[in-house]
Amino acid sequence: MKIVVTGGAGYVGSVCATVLVEQGHDVVVIDNFTTGNRDAVPAQAQLVEGSVADVIGQVLAQGDVDAVFHFAARSLVGESMEVPEEYWRDNLGQSLALLEAMRIHGVKNLVFSSTAATYGEPATTPITEDFPTAPTNTYGATKLSIDYAITSYCQAHGLAATSLRYFNVAGAYGSVGENRKIETHLIPLILQVATGKREDIKIFGDDWPTPDGTAVRDYIHVRDLADAHVLACETNKPSVHRIFNLGSGDGYSVSQVIEMCREVTGHPIPAEVAPRRAGDPATLIASSDKAMNELGWKPSRTDLRTIVEDAWAFTSQLDN
Ligand code: UFG
């Protein structure tokens, strides 16, 4: 298949582009390198540099594109509350341009990179797809708005689409992993302590209503996530918009993640308790039963040790 991967220089997008190339697909990466890394784009992919809205028309006009995997987005929760205009423009605005280009050029298969942030603060866990969507931040709101637009295009124009709502993506796949210009995510930050780039890790609150008082998250391996995208693309149905949660189904606290990183790296990783971070929920755990039952998704790297080992293999070889 010929597949366009928007945001194919970002973390999840570059892993998916790499897997698609390995599986023999013809991949076109679109990225403007606002947050992505040039090195992360697989060498075998065709690279079109630019914003989605600016270049998608010319890419789809080639006429032989079978599907689009749409990752290009801004994705930092805190930043989305400070500069919401950039999130509405770059997430919703660019996605609407993509949907229009797909309609005009008759490309009807879409896999959309969505987020657990669409659910907001859930009343209970695990979170299933029928939970109310009530995002507590602009990032989640932009992703949810795109879902509404996708649903309309499916109903009116026969688009076949799947939105995948990720929980906490982590790990690495070979030479591609988390390497952001500005890092805010827990596992890469902890591992930066082990490489000497950072002195300690701050634990954002130890008074949460969780077993050890630190926040609990569901970590999913980025390579397992890539499999779900491929399965979604292969099983998309005309006029249907499917939504799936993707997690490992297990929750780990911040303290447990730090401890696992100590074991894997052999570094003492000093930690210090700091105030809670605004907008953080106490616990987020996915039910991925629907993805397993309906997509046939079988995540195989669900234990935290594997996730941290793969992340460490990647992070430890980066230039500091
Ligand atoms: N944390 C710390 N110290 C740090 C960084 C994070 O204690 O230095 C804590 C956070 O407070 C949170 C947990 O570690 O409790 C995980 O934080 P991350 O920043 O790694 O991830 P988030 O859970 O905030 O958000 C991630 C993605 C979102 C997505 C969400 C869905 O970044 O895009 O998972 O679960 F919406």
TrEMBL record:
User: Which co-factor is required?
Assistant: NAD(+)
Give yes or no: UniProt keyword Mitochondrion.
no
Note the Pfam families from the entry: Epimerase
Is NAD tagged as a keyword? yes
Q: Which residues cross the membrane?
A: none
User: GO biological process annotations for this chain's record?
Assistant: galactose catabolic process via UDP-galactose, Leloir pathway
EC number in record: 5.1.3.2
> What is the species listed in this Swiss-Prot or TrEMBL entry?
Corynebacterium tapiri
Pathway listed for it is:
Carbohydrate metabolism; galactose metabolism
The UniProt keywords, alphabetically, are: Carbohydrate metabolism, Isomerase, NAD
Q: Where is the NAD-dependent epimerase/dehydratase domain?
A: 3-247
Q: Return the PANTHER family for the record.
A: UDP-ARABINOSE 4-EPIMERASE 1 (PTHR43725:SF53), UDP-GLUCOSE 4-EPIMERASE (PTHR43725)
Q: Which domain of life is it from?
A: Bacteria
* An example molecular function term from Gene Ontology annotations: UDP-glucose 4-epimerase activity
Q: What is this protein called?
A: UDP-glucose 4-epimerase
Subunit composition and interactions = Homodimer.
Family listed: Belongs to the NAD(P)-dependent epimerase/dehydratase family.
Reaction equations catalysed: UDP-alpha-D-glucose = UDP-alpha-D-galactose
Q: Which InterPro entries match?
A: Epimerase_deHydtase (IPR001509), NAD(P)-bd_dom_sf (IPR036291), UDP_G4E (IPR005886)
